Structures are given as structure tokens and as C-alpha cells.
Amino acid sequence: MIPILIVNIITLLLIVLNVVYFKSQKYLFLFIPCMLFLPAYYGIEISKIFPIIEIRRIMFCVFYFYVFVNRKKYISNTDLSIKTISKEYSFLILSFTLRIVSCSYYLAEHLQAYKTILEIVFEEILLLVCIHIMSLSREDLLKLINIIVWSSTVIFAVGIFESFTFIRPFDFLYTVSRSVLNEHYVRLGLLRATTTFGMPVVFGGVCLIVFPAIIYMMLKTNQKKYYMAFIINVMAIIHSGARSAQLFFCFLMVIFPLFIWNKDEVKKYFKSLFISILIVGIFVLLLCKLSPKYEYFYEGSAKAVLNEVGFDFELDANVPEGVEGYGDNDSTGSYSRVAEFSGIKYALEKNFWFGLGDGCDQRNEIRYLWFGKWKPHKAIDIGIVEVFMTEGVIGFLAFLCLFIFIMYTIIKMKNGLEKRICFLTVIAYLLSTLGTSNIFSFLFAFVAIIMSYQKVQNNMID
Q1: Based on the domain organization, do 128 and 33 belong to the same domain?
Q2: Are residues 64 and 130 in contact, defined by beta-carbon separation less than 8 angstroms?
Q3: Are 238 and 247 spatial neighbours (Cβ–Cβ below 8 Å)?
Q4: What is the helix (H) or strand (E) element at residue 13, kind and residue range?
Q5: Pairwise CA distance, residues 217 & 168, whole Å
Q6: Which of 193, 191, 235, 242 lies closest to 214, judged by CA?
Q7: Which of 62-71, 153-162, 170-179 tops mean pLDDT?
């Protein structure tokens, strides 16, 4: 009874917020965080033969209607003329075309192909078109990034709460009867943070992707409140238990100064980094003194990461009474990820151009070379492997075209903090795909932002 009451209250609140933001012509600032963070299991289920009507997708429809009603300009015939399309947008169009072609190959065999094409058109192409129509100003973009940072911070804080308490608040939003990816893992005595992302590694990947945005707001505004966002981000990555995200996060912190050419920005960055890491360190030490359970967790987390770079710590040693150890993944470490690259070979041998088709994991078609033998596997945890296995070489070319567009667009931006943060975000996203599958919602939110920044810097809007 209580879960039903909670989800009803949340749904009612969301409806009220939709009305308020729509009428105030600020719907974008509600839609984007909901697009990024609402779970797939929060929706309406009509029948098992029909897909779930996710609340997130209902908000896509509302957003598109909002853009139509409040548009600042129409897309004219000139806008749609092939002659007026710049080189980088040709790559973007080619990327979408190749993905649709790749998925179309399996239309006669799998219903998933229809679903994937609809997602490409409805959640990616239309999203970018609508953001283009809105012609966001520099102030709009700064506000949007700020909202992404703070909504992420709330989600990360909930993830930390989950890890300590084993209470998962977002499970109250599970409104469908069918099984939707929403895994629970205990590692080193604490629950791995997941929140709305279904898997801890995806949660860790999101922490990694959002990190450059936090640094951007920290340097752009010079406001100390972003220290809190940074600190919560660090703690969330630790409590995700995702070793790849933890390693890559350290890497991003180290390489970011290479992207800073302004001495004042360098000083701000190192000051912010020092204060934030110091606070995290003090907090962790206090927790370790508070309980051997927490000491085992943080010490074990550090050792697990160090094991990935050549050390050989025993992670299940000195386990406190009543606490679970590291788990099965301890014995294989990063080998489980490395082995997944063999899936590219398997998929290309099966179908070089089109791969195995989207949904191949659900059809039990995935095979990895595991200690010399091809064995079935239930998931794809590496982004580039996902591209080859689901869409083949054509899908990879589409992915390549998309990143050519992204890099071309960033290179054309004027030199400044925004340009450097965009480069760092590209690196962060690509690194995240080495630990989990592609997080397309964040990728296309980023694409929409850099497209808008380019328009602002080209003086296309006032």
C-alpha cells in the first residue's frame, strides 16, 4: 500500500511540474533531467505484447509539442536544402542514415529492429531537431548545464544513501509487471549504487560523464557550492564499485590541466581539487574509524583498483564478521571486460556488415572467447563491442561519423573554457564505454549542447 501511495504522490508531483514548466515556457529545464534520469521501469504497461509506455517517453511527446507551440523560428526550405548543409552536419545525417540501414536489415526477423529505429528517430533525431528550433542562448545553456549538474548530484547522493542503507528509493517507481534491468549487487559489505540506471557500472559511467560539467561550473562561476557537487561525485563513483570508472576518473583529474591554458583557471582547478579530495579523505577516514565494516569497504575498494594496475592484494582477507567479501568478479578482474572484445570477432564472422542485431543479448546470441572457449554471455558491457555486435561494420561507421561530427563541431568552437570542457567530455564518454555499454541519452544531450554552443558562437542568435 505504501509503495503505491509513494509512486502516486511522485506521479502527481511530476504532472504538476509539467504543467508549471510548460506554462512558464521553461519546459526544457524539466525535460532534460527527466530524460536523463527517469528509469525505464517507471511507466504504463497496457499489455505484455506491447512495449512499456515509459513516463520518460511521454515527456518526449510533451517536449516536442512544447517546442512546436513555443518555437522561436521554423525550419525553412533553405534550412533543409542539401546545399546549405555544412560538412559536419553531413556526417551527422550520414550517422543516422547508416544506423537506420543497419537496423532495417533485421526488420523481417526481429521486432526489436522496429523498436530501435523508432528510438533513433524519436529520441535522437527529433531531439536534436527540436533543440535546433529552440535556438538556445548562452544563458539558457549555462542554466541547462547547471540543472544537469545539480540533478546529477541529487541522483549521486541517493546512490550513496543506497549503498550505506541498502534502501533503494527509486524502486518505488517500479510500476510495471515485466522484468526490466534493475540489478542489485553487494560488494565489500555495501550495496553497489545503481539508482535509476539498472546496473552499477552504468551509474559509475554517468558519474564519469558528468564530471567535466561539474568542473565547468566550478571554474565558470567560481562558486564554492560546486565543491559539494564534486565531493558527492567522487563518493558516488567509489560506491558504484565500478573499478573502470574509478580508474578513469583519476585519469581525467590528472589530464584535465593539459586542457587549461589560463593560469588563473589552473590555480582554480588545483585549489578546487585539493579542497574536495581533502574533504573526501577526511570523511572516509572518519567512517573507517566509526566501523570496521566501512574500513573494509574503502580499503578493499582502493585495493581492487590497484589490482587492475598490477598489484595483487587479497580482497577477501580480514573480512569483518557478517560482511560479504568482494564477490565472484575478484577472480577474473578486468579479464571479463577484455574477453568481451572477442565478441567483435564473433559478430563479424556471423554477419560482417550488420552484426547480430539489436537485442542479441536478450536472444542469447552473444558469445565471448572465455579462457580459450566460446561461451554464451548475457550482456554487453563495452560500448564499442556493443556497436559491432548489434549493428556490425555499418553501425561502427555510423558511430565514427557521429564522433567526426562532434569533434568537427568542437574544433570550430572559439577557444575558451567551453571548448576545452567539450574535449574533456568526449574523452570521459569514450572512457565510460570501456566499462559499460553506450549511454546514448547523455551522448545526445551533449551533442545538442555543442550544436547550440556553436550557433551561439557563430552569432546565429542574439
Answers
A1: no
A2: yes
A3: no
A4: helix 2-23
A5: 29
A6: 235
A7: 153-162
Cell of 342: 572477442
Find the domain containing 237 and state its range: 157-334
| Same domain assignment for residues 98 and 126 | yes
pLDDT of residue 135: 82
**pLDDT value of residue 78:** 47
Domain final residue, candidates 282, 305, 334? 334
* Least confident piece of the model among 32-36, 237-241, 327-331, 355-359: 327-331
- What is the rounded average pLDDT for all residues in the chain? 89
Q: List 53's β-bridge partners, or say none.
A: 44
Q: Give the pLDDT confidence score for residue 49 in this predicted structure.
A: 63
Look at residue 352 and give its three-state secondary structure.
Answer: coil
Q: Are residues 46 and 193 in the same domain?
A: no
Q: Are 365 and 436 members of one domain?
A: yes
**Count of domains observed in the chain:** 3
75 in any annotated domain: no
244 shares its domain with 272: yes
Residue 141, in any domain of the structure: no
Please give the grid coordinates belonging to residue 312.
595483487
296 shares its domain with 347: no
Q: Which of 375, 389, 299, 387 is nearest to 332 (CA)?
A: 375
- Residues forming a β-bridge with 367: 376
The per-residue pLDDT for 85 is: 61
Confirm if 117 and 104 have CB atoms less than 8 A apart.
Answer: yes
Residue 357 gets which letter from DSSP? -
Residue 402: name the closest of 124, 154, 2 by CA: 124
82 band by pLDDT with thresholds 50, 70 and 90? low
Pair (211, 325) in one structural domain: yes
The amino acid sitting at 361 is: D
Q: Which of 272, 302, 334 is the last residue of a domain?
A: 334
Helix H or strand E encompassing 376: strand 373-376
Assigned domain for 456 exists = yes
pLDDT at 81: 53
Q: Tens digit of pLDDT for each residue in 384-408?
A: 999 999 999 999 999 999 999 999 9
Task: Report pTM.
Answer: 0.93
Weakest-pLDDT range from 94-98, 146-150, 177-181, 390-394:
177-181
- Position 371 confidence tier, pLDDT thresholds 50, 70, 90: confident
Taking residue 264's Cβ as centre, other Cβ atoms within 10 Å add up to 10
Task: Say yes or no: 323 and 345 in one domain.
Answer: no
Q: What is the CA radius of gyration of the chain?
A: 22
Half-sphere exposure of 139 (CA within 13 A, CB side): 3
CA proximity to 188, closest of 61, 281, 294, 80: 294
Answer yes or no: are the C-beta atoms of 191 and 113 closer than 8 Å.
Answer: no
